[in-house]
Amino acid sequence: MEIIEIKLIPTKNILTIIPLLKQLNNYTSESILKKRVLEMSKQHYKCVGMYINEELIGIAGLWFLTRHYCGSTIEPDHVIINSAFRNKGYGKKLFNWIHNYAQNIGYEAAELNTYIENISSHRFYENEGYKKLGFHYLKIF
Fold first, then answer.
1. CB-based contacts of 100-105 (< 8 A; 24+ apart in sequence)
2. Could you give the CA distance from residue 75 to residue 60 in angstroms, rounded to a whole number?
3. Most CB atoms closer than 10 Å: which of 5, 56, 58, 122?
4. 138 lies in a domain?
5. What is the Cα–Cα distance from 101 to 36, expressed in whole angstroms?
């Protein structure tokens, strides 16, 4: 029997997201990912995990901020469902949890970024009601 649980991952367990994060980001070394995730956990960041029978199969980092154009917003980041569990409705369940959580704590909007080449994520987010607003630029020093 499949038992699904979606909950915030305690900061003390935040490094449990690294194996899933590596599925999304295989170009950054594990040691740097660990360092960055630990630093993120000290900022306006939480991570939600989706568990099936206590196995972590999905994650979404959550950033909390206020924008002049939409008010208080939650930003799902590094959203990933383990490749063995994709296309089974788990992403939709995870986003339902995120949206309900945000509304319950008084947030007005959700916004996110996705990689240009990740066409399947574009369709998913649009089906979840997200609208494309612009481009995200990055400059690394």
1. 101/48, 101/74, 102/74
2. 9
3. 58
4. no
5. 25
